[in-house]
Write a structure and sequence with these properties.
The protein has 581 residues and is of the alpha+beta class. It has two domains: 51-255, Endonuclease, Chain A, CATH 3.30.870; 378-580, Endonuclease Chain A (Endonuclease, Chain A, 2-Layer Sandwich), CATH 3.30.870.10. It is 35% helix and 18% strand. It contains 16 helices and 21 strands. β17 (481-484) and β18 (488-492) form a beta hairpin. The longest helix is centred in the middle third of the chain and has 24 residues, at 253-276.
């Protein structure tokens, strides 16, 4: 959205908005998705161990005398997360496969995609699969990569209509609101089928500590070895699915050129407006383009050294929803391959009959019988005996989730959940779905923690250093983590909410490692005490206990949230059902 220094008359503004809606409806009324689209089938690189990354993995494995074949590194800060992707781009020799819910056209992504373009120029085959929902306006400019040599780009579950603005596309989709709600939420970044990153981050400034407004607190895992083949297998399943449309079938180079020109005009106008008020207002980033400071930061970032990364070698499985969880166009959610079982790909590592493998196989078997990734996690929760530690930025428990937590508490399991506070939530209406169940969860003995939004130096879910260099003061939780009994670690794209359970597709790594679980638990616990409000139910009233050492006072109202925001959600929140939040 552009910023303007000139005041707008409210009636004229409303008239213009109504005219824009009417025009969008007229222009997009007949827009349809293309028919008979060609989708050449392709698959991941065959694992021959002849790339630099594959040979590096083997050397690292042998040097560690590892019992298990796959290795993992927790990427618990924005620099490590960004540097790992830069390293994979620069090291790739044959293939790069990227699968994301959102790729934003900003400075951080610009640096990454510049590297991807360079990789394609040196002969690397690049496949990029992106959910279609956010690819409008300026963010549509990332689609230009589809027209580069050696780069293929596809959109999952696309919407018809003008890509220049979200308004026209939403207007064109009024008749298919159910399909619009169902999105591909998976996040994968894979190089040469030898190393890959999975977790919660999308690609953009706010995910890599480079936003001037606020940054997401997130977590990824760098994976190496045979487990990456399973991540690639999941990618191929989506890439070759009928819901994936080549970008060229949806948008032309001429249309993207027009969007780019309008974006440049909007950026110029925004900066002119910002300059006019610079004497009275601090400089802030708008959605019209990166600031020079952001661009400088992104280009100054360095790849991590994969040769010295601290891999932990452990057995693991990939758990991923089938793309059929999202129905094809013009079909009901239960039609055809609609709500297919979750795709669970077991990767045996090391000694087949080891206790670690037997425990992992049992967990995978439970998840395999579930309809979705989230329901698989609920089955895992049912196996907990001592402790459950959960991070879910959007925590909207349905009946079966609440039953799983109640059963765990009845077994004496300690359950701790870190989620967003109202002030830290980038989608405040989602907070309503959590808040309406908050007292019930507390009454059953679940311990709830809410992220403190004003923690400027809170660079990761684990409290690691990672302050935004651009000075943003708002932190927004985005990590999705589960630690079970100090032995099983799950990191992925899923939230514990009905949207992830019933509508979005998700992917997760399920790692059986006492060491990784211990590291995650220690750092998460530090974050709970130092960076989160502890919510308690005392005499029927909610109390938010201030973080240790924060100097803040306990409070009986949603901390850091304005009275107007609290009132707005109180009035309109009840109108939104849990499954849409």
């Amino acid at each position: 959205m552009s910023l303007s220094s000139a005041p707008q008359h409210p009636i004229k503004t409303m008239q213009r908005w109504c005219a824009a809606v009417a025009a969008a409806l007229l222009l997009s009324a007949c827009a349809q998705l293309p028919k008979n689209v060609e989708r050449p089938v392709s698959s991941a690189l065959a694992s021959k161990g002849d790339t630099a990354l594959a040979m590096l993995v083997q050397r690292r494995h042998d040097a560690a005398s590892a019992r298990f074949d796959s290795g993992f590194v927790l990427l618990d800060g924005p620099q490590a997360a960004y540097g790992s992707r830069l390293a994979l781009v620069e090291s790739a020799q044959k293939t790069l496969d990227l699968q994301y819910y959102a790729i934003h056209a900003d400075a951080s992504t610009g640096r990454l995609l510049s590297g991807v373009r360079d990789a394609a120029a040196r002969g690397v085959r690049v496949r990029i699969l992106i959910d279609d929902f956010h690819s409008t306006g300026r963010d549509a400019l990332v689609l230009r990569l589809a027209f580069e040599k050696n780069i293929e780009m596809r959109m999952f579950n696309p919407l018809a209509g003008d890509r220049d603005s979200a308004l026209s596309r939403m207007a064109n989709s009024l008749g298919e609101a159910s399909r619009v709600q169902q999105r591909m939420h998976n996040k994968l970044f894979i190089a040469d089928n030898a190393m890959g990153v999975a977790g919660g981050r999308n690609l953009g400034d706010a995910y890599f500590g480079n936003s001037t407004v606020g940054n997401f607190v997130d977590l990824d895992v760098l994976a190496a070895g045979p487990i990456v083949r399973d991540l690639s297998r999941s990618f191929d399943t989506y890439w070759n699915n009928e819901r994936s449309y080549p970008v060229e079938s949806l948008v032309s180079q001429a249309e993207l050129a027009q969007i780019r020109e309008r974006s440049r005009d909007a950026t110029a106008a925004a900066r002119e407006g910002a300059s006019a008020t610079a004497s009275t207002s601090p400089a802030t980033r708008t959605d019209d383009g990166p600031t020079p400071e952001q661009r400088s930061h992104a280009w100054d970032e360095k790849p991590i050294d994969l040769a010295t990364a601290a891999f932990v070698w452990a057995p693991a499985v990939v758990l991923a929803d089938q793309p059929g969880k999202i129905p094809p166009d013009n079909s009901s959610p239960n039609a055809g391959d609609g709500r297919a079982p979750a795709l669970v790909i077991s990767q045996q590592n090391g000694t087949q009959n080891s206790p670690a493998n037997r425990a992992l196989d049992a967990a995978a078997d439970l998840a395999a019988g579930s309809d979705t990734v989230v329901e698989g996690l609920l089955q895992l929760i049912g196996q907990s005996r001592r402790d459950l530690l959960i991070i879910s930025p959007y925590f909207v428990p349905g009946d079966d989730m609440k039953q799983a937590f109640a059963a765990a508490r009845a077994r004496g399991v300690r359950v701790r959940v870190l989620t967003n506070s109202l002030a830290s939530n980038d989608a405040p209406v989602a907070h309503v779905g959590y808040a309406r169940h908050r007292e019930e969860m507390l009454a059953m003995g679940v311990e709830l923690y809410e992220l403190r939004s004003g923690r400027a130096d809170f660079g990761s879910a684990f409290g690691a250093s990672g302050a935004s260099v651009t000075g943003a003061s708002k932190a927004m939780l985005h990590s999705k983590v589960l630690v079970l009994d100090g032995r099983l670690l799950v990191v992925g794209s899923m939230n514990l909410d009905l949207r992830s359970q019933l509508q979005n597709t998700e992917v997760a790594l399920l790692i059986r490692s006492d060491e990784l679980s211990r590291i995650a638990t220690r750092q998460i616990e530090a974050a709970l005490h130092e960076g989160a409000w502890h919510v308690e139910l005392t005499d029927g009233k909610l109390i938010w206990r201030a973080p240790t050492g924060s100097g803040l006072q306990d409070t009986t109202t949603e901390p850091d949230a304005s009275a107007s925001l609290r009132l707005l959600l109180k009035l309109f929140g009840p109108l939104a059902p849990d499954k849409l939040l």
